[in-house]
Each structure stands twice: as structure tokens, then as C-alpha cells.
Amino acid sequence: MRIKCAAIRYMGNVYEGVSHYAIGQKMIADGVCEKIPGGDAQGFVTECGKYVRRAPALMIAIGAGQVEEGKTLNPLHLFSEDINQYKQ
Predict the structure, then answer these.
(1) Is pTM beyond 0.90 here?
(2) Quick one: pLDDT band at residue 87, thresholds 50, 70, 90?
(3) 71 CB contacts (<8 Å, ≥6 apart)?
């Protein structure tokens, strides 16, 4: 299993994109929300289409070789910058 992209889960829908910031800006522009949802709303989607939070996403990305353990922005949570840095 691999991480496909960043995602925000909001009001029962999952919005996907290259970064949480870009997703949030598009959501605001589309009138979905007034500010970028944070906290547990931000996660990732796997290549299988499953939404996962940042901590499990980090473990998936490490296991898939998408990021190197100890060389991410946060040792406990995945950030879209981590994935985009290692895109293959």
C-alpha cells in the first residue's frame, strides 16, 4: 500500500490534492468552507482510496519507501511536503 495524495475530510466528503493548503484554498474558493479545516480533518488517501490520518499515513509511507524514517518534517505525522519531496 502507498500514499496517493494529501486529503481533507470535511462534512462527510474527502477532498484530494497535492497539499493540504492547496486543497483548503480550493475548498474555500468553491464555497465549501470559510477556512481551511485543520486537525484530524487533514490526512491522506492511499492508492486503494482509503482515507488515513497523518500518523498511520507516515507508517504507510515509510513502509512503501515513499519517505525515509527520521527525515520527515515531524517524526510522528506525515505532511504533504514529505511526500512531495520524495515523489518518484
Answers:
(1) yes
(2) low
(3) none
Residue tagged 504507510 (cell numbers): 60
Q: Scanning the structure block, which residue is given the C-alpha cell 512503501?
A: 64
C-alpha 54/C-alpha 39 separation (Å) is 10
**Residue 30, domain extent:** 3-85
On the question of pLDDT at 84 being above 90, the answer is no
Q: Which has more pLDDT, 85 or 26?
A: 26
**Number of domains the chain contains:** 1
Strand bridging mode 42-46 / 3-10:
antiparallel
- Residue 74, C-alpha cell as written in the block: 515531524
CA pair distance 53, 74, nearest whole angstrom: 14
Distance CA 15, CA 65 (A): 24
